[in-house]
Design goal:
With about 110 residues, the protein is mostly beta strands. It is globular. It starts with a strand and ends with a helix.
């Protein structure tokens, strides 16, 4: 499967375009979301899944595990502004951390 506008990253914020990258040559898994800087580790980044949703998850990846990135159209919301969405291809076998934010409360108080 050939792609015509794949982005390959060295540094997380600088994207270089390469034409005709063959995805079948690389063992990588795709994750879709809004990438952002890691709050305190320069060698990592955070991908926010469903960034305009009230119920979202975050995945922390090492920048060195990025194989390539595809840009998708920016999405926007009336209340929350616009969000850059990307498909980030991570090398197979890499270690990542998935985080799910939640409210600390007794179940009975949430449903009352």
């Amino acid at each position: 499967m050939k792609c015509t506008d794949i982005m390959v990253k060295d540094d997380f914020l600088s994207i270089e375009k390469y034409k005709n990258v063959n995805k079948s040559d690389v063992k990588a898994i795709a994750f879709t979301g809004s990438p952002g800087r890691h709050p305190y580790e320069e060698d990592k980044f955070v991908l926010i899944l469903n960034p305009l949703s009230d119920n979202t998850e975050f995945i922390e990846f090492n920048k060195s595990d990025i194989v390539y990135i595809e840009e998708l159209p920016t999405i926007s919301s009336k209340n929350k502004g616009s969000v850059s969405i990307k498909i980030v291809w991570i090398k197979e076998g890499a270690i990542a951390v998935k985080m799910t934010p939640f409210v600390i409360a007794k179940t009975s108080t949430i449903y009352d």
